[in-house]
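Usage

Read records sequentially. Each one opens with the input sequence:
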Amino acid sequence: MDSLLGEILEVLIRIGPIVVFVVTMTETALFIGLLVPAEATVLCAAFLADLGYFELEHVLAATLLGGFAGDQIGYALGRFAGRGVAARGGRLGRLWAQHEPRAIALFARRTIVSVSLARFISFVRTLMPWFAGMSGMSWPRFLLYDALGVLGWGIGSVALGYAAGRSWEAVAGTLGAVSATIIGALFLIIGLAVWRRSRRRATERA
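and closes with the structure output:
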């Protein structure tokens, strides 16, 4: 995961916030959220915006559009192909078979929990759009509650990454010392990526 995040950061620095859009979209659209570190990418992109690499508004727009588009694609895939995919087994099939009755009841009765708040939990966020579609939830209802969840998650994640660039104490106060240390480690990866890029440019000019 660390090496993948490092590679994503190098591409992010070279290309810009479009990488944030792609990463946040594929996290839920293609059911690969366990492999794609979307939240870490958003935090780091916001931190880089504070350093002057990007416009903060571009990072926020990429985060919101990518997260929303990914969820809508995931919902559509779950609605029209999810049960067929689950019938063939695999991880999705096992999870759906294990949780189908509870998932259907949860999406029907507790939409704000199952959709909006699920956006804030990494593993659950990956499964949520697919399971929402497979549960038979109506698209207008999913659209509304997903938009609320994406707005909260996207704005919160970008603000947190930007605040980290402004003040270490702000992160420590918000997340606690352990989480702040994890965020600090992510930013160390950013620093290494920036240093490697600068060194490569210096070598090319020599």
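Summary fields computed downstream for this record:
- The chain has one domain: 2-205.
- Residues 175-180 have pLDDT under 50 and may be disordered.
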